From TrEMBL:
It is found in: Secreted, Extracellular space, Apoplast. It catalyses: 4 hydroquinone + O2 = 4 benzosemiquinone + 2 H2O. It comes from Panicum virgatum. Coiled coil: none annotated. Its EC number is 1.10.3.2. Lignin degradation and detoxification of lignin-derived products. Its cofactor is Cu cation. This is Laccase. Binds 4 Cu cations per monomer. Its main location: secreted.
Length: 566
């Protein structure tokens, strides 16, 4: 196995789209940033040089980071952020995972411009893929473009915890495409040149802050072969649905009459991108080398808010067991059950006193799990956990309850406690939510959406572990009925699972990676508003099941680190 080394210089520059110059924070001057291409088993070293005016961390989304939580890149959870003019080197290896993952800044909003692909190829080469070897492989990154300075959006969010900020456009591989224009001049779009009869593996990533996307190519079908760096049983469809944080690898064969075909990515999430833009979708072009001009063919898109499409697409994924690609067993017994409702509420701003009828600015809108909103810690949790720093142990953290405070008909819109808009939201509070797991415990979680989330599906992402997705459905989870539907044979293994709009999803995972792991909604605004918790996996009985010491150049801030046991 090799060492793959990169230097990521983070800087701020101006970029112009839609006739407007916007300050953006980027890696090596490009959006998307560089792809990291590795073979399974390789070690990756990334030197991050922060020349931007912002605090930065980089998260390697979906990389399991076994016994390596120190490199997970979550500010104030796994590390102090890398401050302007500081450097930090992330080191990790990629084992037991093949396919597409990605990296992104884990600092509010900046991931819209600070992201790139991670491509993991099998040790035995492309001929060991459990599907026909593609002629070419192409990263296909769906994102959103913000004409506003995102560091300003982030600052306002921190202050008010409220947003009415929307992306200005959607992008494919950083390009807005010809549905967008500046004074009538169309924006550049991504062009995929193909040859008739050849096959292409699209490594599709949704990096958007905002929306799940529908993706279609006129005249062509996708065969989905992997998701979140796990193979899936090949599944043929004309529509890919991908939520923020997910990756989908899909084969496309150039088997249509030679010509030009639009590849359209349409955000399906309310609210829509802002009204200055004529059309929220973006498109790229698939262009046959043998074609001689002509008008591109456009695909027929589903209704933008047809939420059932997402449920249908995700329900059709199953894992592929193959002698060359072993998978961990699906846990058949469960040690801990969690039932987690996702919602919104009103909470008193940190450091203020509010009374129940406080109509002033001190009550802010927050996003919740089991009706509690995550409060960002002021010193990083991982070193506190590792060194058992007094006063930053369990006492400062609140245990995430294993069920919501009351049983409710979660998804009946008529049963939201309605009043004037603010009164529709339950009163809640903020706390640094954590849940402890003994090493090796098998955990079942049911994520239940609630009426207040209407219009949103929630992509829930767990760091450091993959989750088996056992079942999903609309309405309220009914344990007796829905457990009987669990797929315990070949459920897909994912790091980001989609909770259907007004529905639920049930997952299982084994907590076998010691450390402090973020678990959150991958909509940037839900994350920033507190739909978050940390999962603390205790050390196992041996050295090989315990978290080793932090790297030597581990950045510090706040409280000094202490020696273990002192
Ligand atoms: Cu891709 Cu914690 O995120």
């Amino acid at each position: 196995s090799a060492i793959v080394e990169h230097t990521f210089v983070v800087s701020q520059m101006n970029m112009t789209h839609l006739c407007k110059e916007t300050p953006v924070t980027v890696v090596n001057g490009q959006i998307p940033g560089p792809s990291i291409e590795v073979t399974e088993g390789d070690s990756v070293t990334v030197h991050v040089v922060n020349k931007s005016p912002h605090n930065i961390t980089i998260h390697w989304h979906g990389v399991k980071q076994r016994r390596n939580c120190w490199s997970d890149g979550v500010p104030m959870v796994t590390q102090c952020p890398i401050q302007p003019n500081q450097n930090f080197t992330y080191r990790f290896s990629v084992a037991g995972q093949v396919g597409t993952l990605w990296w992104h800044a884990h600092v509010s909003c900046l991931r819209a411009t600070l992201h790139g692909a991670i491509i993991i190829r099998p040790r035995l080469g492309a001929s060991s893929y459990p599907f026909p070897k593609p002629d070419r492989e192409i990263p296909f990154i769906i994102g959103d473009w913000w004409a506003m300075d995102l560091s300003v959006v982030a600052r306002r969010m921190e202050k008010d915890n409220f947003f009415d900020y929307f992306p200005s456009a959607s992008t494919i591989n950083g390009k807005l495409g010809d549905l967008f224009n500046c004074s009538g001049v169309p924006e550049d779009g991504f062009v995929l040149g193909v040859e008739a009869g050849k096959s292409y593996l699209l490594r599709i990533i949704n990096t958007a802050l905002f929306s799940e996307y529908f993706l279609k190519i006129a005249g062509h079908k996708f065969t989905v072969v992997a998701s979140d760096a796990n193979y899936v049983r090949p599944y043929t469809t004309d529509l890919v649905v991908i939520a923020p944080g997910e990756t989908i690898d899909a084969l496309v064969v150039a088997d249509a009459p030679p010509g030009k075909y639009y590849m359209v990515a349409m955000p399906n999430q309310a609210p829509l991108p802002d009204t200055q833009t004529p059309e929220p979708s973006t498109r790229a072009t698939m262009q046959y080398s043998s074609s001689n001009g002509g008008k591109p063919v456009a695909p027929v898109m589903p209704d933008q808010h047809d939420v059932v499409r997402s449920l249908y697409f995700h329900s059709n994924l199953s894992s592929l067991r193959h002698p060359r690609h072993p998978l961990p067993p699906v846990p058949q017994q469960v040690d801990q059950h969690l039932f987690i409702t996702l919602g919104l509420g009103m909470a008193c701003r940190q450091g203020f006193k509010c009374n129940r009828d406080d109509k002033n600015d001190n009550m802010i809108l927050v996003a919740t799990m089991n009706n509690i909103s995550f409060q960002k810690p002021t010193a990083p949790l991982l070193p506190a956990h590792y060194y058992h720093v007094a006063g930053s142990n369990r006492g400062d953290l609140l245990e995430l309850p294993d069920r919501p405070p009351r049983v409710f008909n979660f998804t009946d819109p008529s049963l939201i406690p309605i009043g004037p808009k603010e009164k529709a939201l339950e009163t809640t509070y903020m706390a640094t939510l954590a849940r402890w797991f003994r090493y090796g415990s098998a955990v079942e979680m049911v994520f239940q959406s609630t009426s207040i989330m209407q219009g949103d599906s929630n992509p829930m992402h767990l760091h450091g572990h993959d989750m088996f997705v056992l079942a999903q459905g609309v309405g309220n989870f009914d344990a007796a009925k829905d457990r009987a539907r669990y797929n315990l044979v070949d459920p897909p293994l994912k790091n980001t699972v989609v909770v259907p709009n007004l529905g639920w999803v049930a997952i299982r995972f084994v907590a076998d990676n010691p450390g402090v792991w973020y678990m959150h909604c991958h909509y940037e605004f839900h994350l920033a508003m507190g739909m978050t918790a940390v999962f603390i996996v205790e050390d196992g009985p041996t050295v090989n099941t315990s978290l080793p010491a932090p790297p030597v150049d581990y950045p510090s801030c706040g409280r000094p680190n202490r020696k273990k046991g002192s």
